[in-house]
Amino acid sequence: MKKIKVAVLMGGKSSEHEISILSGQQVVSNLNLNKYEILPVVISKTGDWKPESILDKKIDIVFIAMHGKYGEDGTIQGMLELSGIPYTGSGVLASSVGMNKGTFRKLMSAENLPIPKYIKIKKGYSVVEITKKLDNGPYFVKPENGGSSVGASIVKNIDEIKKAVDLSFKHDDNVLVDEYIKGREITCALIGNDNPKALPVIEIKPLKGKFFDYESKYTESGAEEIVPADLGKSLTKEIQDLSIKVYKSLSCKGFGRVDFILKDNKEPIILEINTIPGLTPMSLLPKAARAAGISYSQLLDIIINNAIKKN
Fold first, then answer.
1. Which residues are CB-contacts of 153 (< 8 A; sequence separation ≥ 6)?
2. Residue 257 designated active-site
3. Which CATH code of 3.30.413.10, 3.40.50.720, 3.20.20.70, 3.40.50.20 fits the domain covering 4-88?
4. Which of 34, 37, 228, 253 has the fewest CB atoms inside 10 Å of its own CB, making it the most exposed?
5. Phi, psi dihedral angles at 187 (to 5 degrees)
6. From the centroid of its chain, how far is CA 136?
7. Cα gap 86→39, rounded to integer Å
8. Is the CB of residue 303 less than 8 Å from the CB of residue 186?
9. What is the number of helices (H) and of strands (E) in the chain?
10. Is 90 among the catalytic positions?
11. Is residue 74 a contact partner of residue 95, using CB atoms and an 8 Å limit?
């Protein structure tokens, strides 16, 4: 049987460069050598490619293991579309909307799906804008574009807002200030194209931070992850159904993950979608797949098969 030639893209210019390298290395290590011929492609922080081009390598499919700007936001997807090269995951529009949290929130609102109260601010903002919409806090502050909780923080009250907003502005020109919702952190991974399957729901209990921040996500013992989450059948199904609605509303493809907070520990509020969730040994998608009886190598097969089917 002829092997499928797969280029695995990793790295890139985003603040999630190192995590992307870990994801890409994990993909390369777990692709079945009996099925695939593998070409690892590392994109540097300055945008240099090694090897320099995949266009003349007669690649069958590109596995995108990139996170954040220039990888998860539709830019690399657009380049591959123009080049006529099939790739894993969602297309240009779904990737772009999923990455831009403000646009994503507008779509969720139009679909009557539950999201936090929030305000989008730009540089030169007024504190009055925030208090008028969200009272005096507490708040959750994050860049509009970004992932892995880079530049995000919890703020107790309006007196502490400037430091948190300045941190977020280092990563994007637009910042979202949410009402802070205290509750259990939940995530639901999905696989599939037009008829996605929701995997077992995971509850996340951060151990190193106040929320599931960068350190909690990517350091050993940073968080306790309970899979499947102890939520009961009814709430579990509600979260899985909501996740499928979010996924379909963006026309996502291949795989993804929707994050929630459980308001009062019973009402799921949608926070964001990850169109290229992490694939490191500590990442949530592989753990959810494992709980569903899907090995890491099988998960990669499914992602690649979904990419082939969509083209």
1. 140, 141, 142, 164, 167, 168
2. yes
3. 3.40.50.20
4. 34
5. -140, 150
6. 30
7. 15
8. no
9. 10, 14
10. no
11. yes
Please tell me the distance from the alpha carbon of residue 11 to that of residue 47, in angstroms, as a whole number.
9
CA–CA gap between residue 64 and residue 71 (Å, rounded): 8
* Class of domain 97-114+181-310 as given by CATH: alpha beta
Instruction: Please say if 218 is a catalytic residue.
Output: yes
To the query of whether residue 135 is one of the catalytic residues in this protein, the response is: no
CA dist., res. 87 & res. 67, Å (int): 15
Query: Is residue 148 annotated as a catalytic residue, yes or no?
Result: yes
Six-digit token string for 214 = 């960068």
Domain with CATH 3.30.1490.20 in the chain: 118-179
Is 259 known to be catalytic? Answer: yes
pLDDT in tens, 72-121: 999 999 999 999 999 999 999 999 999 999 999 999 999 999 999 999 98
- Residue intervals of the chain classified under CATH 3.30.470.20 are 97-114+181-310
Structure tokens at 57: 């390598």
Reduced to 3 states (helix: H, G, I; strand: E, B; else coil), residue 205 is strand
pLDDT digits (tens, 9 = 90+) for 225-280: 999 999 999 999 999 999 999 999 999 999 999 999 999 988 999 999 999 999 98
Dihedral pair phi/psi, residue 98, rounded to 5°: -65, -35
Q: Which of 145, 274, 283, 306 is catalytic?
A: 274
Q: Where in the chain is the domain with CATH 3.40.50.20?
A: 4-88
Domain covering 118-179 assigned CATH 3.30.1490.20 in the classification: yes
What is the model's pTM?
0.89
